[in-house]
User: What shape does this take?
Amino acid sequence: MTKNFKTSELDMLYGTTSVKMPIPGGKLPDIREILDISFKNQKEIDLVIISLDIDRLILSAEERNDETKPDFLYDDNWLNDAGYLWNKSILVHDCLGNLKRTLQKEPSMTFDEYSSFSFETGEKTVLEKYYRRDDIVEEKPFTAEDKELVSQNVMTNYATLIEQNPQTEFLFFVPPYSVVFWDDLFRNGDVERILSAEEEAIRILLQYDNVKVFCFNEKQEWICNLDNYSDSMHYTGDINSAILQDMHEEAYRIKKDDLTEHIEESRLFFKNYDYDIICGSQP
Assistant: This one.
């Protein structure tokens, strides 16, 4: 959800010198680990922007992503890095190209370019990747166990870090997932669970003075236009740029007093939307 952010745009808006550290498939503990390393090595951090991925909230506070991650590169022990430093593929395919570019004084990749992607977008592309079940499952409740999972997840992975760094401003944003994402939740009976998880997570985060939360569920002109998406969740760089601009202008910011109203508006929209208008044309 953050890969297509441009640090040049963020720096221009906020007067920062930023780095981009997206984690493919990352869950909250993965993000927390990167933040721990960042604060350990850079004591004065003014601003952190984090995607609040609402589909990851009702999980164990220890659950990480499913992809293989070289944990040995995240510790302070150089002795266990030999498998990386003397890896033929790394030396030939990565190091030599970078050395050549350095010797030729060619500019390195910028953080605008780093990890960014550009895929084909549009209704046909998105719906071809989407399996839509025929039936609609009865809506599932947001249980006490769900609430406890959300609380533990947010408190363990974010709240402690926020408390320990009161000088840092944390901006969380709920990404504008497409209407196809919400159709999948609707047909599987999960809209209420996910929105209630979002509400609980935001309620916890808004306890802290150095936190701001923004939610883009209301950007219907984005989420209902599949030209903005390459699949049910991932949007174009133009949307990332607009998110940065909106956050800087404090548009779509959620405050304590309007959290309940915001969630209720989302409930009304996502539980009553005629998904067949878009998703019914699935190939």
Q: What stands out?
A: Residues 120 and 230 are 6 Å apart (CA to CA). Residues 144-164 form the longest helix (21 residues). The chain has a mean pLDDT of 93.
